[in-house]
Every structure is written in structure tokens, then in C-alpha cells.
Amino acid sequence: MNPIRRAAAAAAAATLLALSVSACGDDGDSNAGDSPTDASQDDFCDAWTDAFEKLAGAGEKPSEDDWEAFQDKVKDLGDVGTPDDIDDDARDGFETFVDIVVDSDYDDAKDFAKGLPGASAKEQANAEGFVTYAITTCTEVPEQ
User: Is the whole model's pTM more than 0.85, yes or no?
Assistant: First the structure.
């Protein structure tokens, strides 16, 4: 992955975080707890960036098609899993993040400013920790 793709992913982080940590619903489509725990950093970052790219141009209110494409890519992220260097809290946040995004419906995803519906303060903090981990792990700062 080139530095420009990673920078674009980082630039979309605020939008993704706000949108993803507030989506809600539970139709049982995802079970991120079964995701691999030994993904390569490149595979993880490719999947993370691919998900971001689906929302990069969508602004604060993505279309239903944008949302569904994002959900598909987050499901792929769940299939890839996380690198083994992720801490336990961030891994828990990954599982929460993937499960809620994949299982949400578009109508619930529109209002993203309130946080994870039904999530405890610890789950919310862990999800935010995961997003921070992903941004830090997957963002290359170009050399000057």
C-alpha cells in the first residue's frame, strides 16, 4: 500500500470513527470474536484502508450504497483479523467495531454523533482504542 492511500485513510478517520462507533442493530451477520489474531500488518492495513475508501467521498451522510459498501469492507476486515501486536483492549474494540458496523442498518447509521448504542463505557473506549491503533499502525508519514 502506498503512503498516499494510507494518508487518505487517515484523513477519513474522523468520519469513519463517528459513523462506525454509532451504528446500531443486531441481525447476527458478524462474529468478529472468531476473526484471526495473526494477520500481517500489510493485510490488516489494506483491509482497513479499503473500508475507509468506501466512505472517503461520502461526507457526513453517506448514501445507502456507500454504507453497504463500507459494511462489506468492514466484514472483510473482520475476515482478515488483527495483527498479533494489538493489545487486548484494542482487540476487544475491533470485535465491537466490526460486529456493530456489519450488523447495523442504514437508517440507524445516519445519526452517528451519539456513540455506540447499547455499548458500555468500556466497549466505547475499546472501540476508540482500536480506531487509534488502526490509524497509528496503518498511516505512513511521508519522508521529507
Answer: no
> 3-class DSSP state for residue 87?
coil
Does residue 76 lie in a domain region?
Answer: yes
Neighbours of 89 (CB within 10 A): 15
DSSP category for residue 28:
S
* pLDDT tens for each residue of 86-140: 999 999 999 988 888 888 877 766 655 566 656 688 888 998 999 999 999 998 7
How confident is the model over 48-99, as pLDDT tens digits?
999 978 777 666 677 888 888 888 999 999 999 999 999 999 999 999 888 8
Closest C-alpha to 129, from 90, 94, 98, 101: 90
Q: Are 101 and 137 in contact (CB under 8 A)?
A: no
> Can you give the residue range of the structural domain that contains 9?
3-25+39-138
Task: Count structural domains, the chain.
Answer: 1
Give a yes or no: residue 33 inside a domain.
no
Query: Which residue's C-alpha cell is 495483527?
Result: 83
31 is a domain residue? no
In whole angstroms, what is the distance from residue 134 CA to residue 91 CA? 11
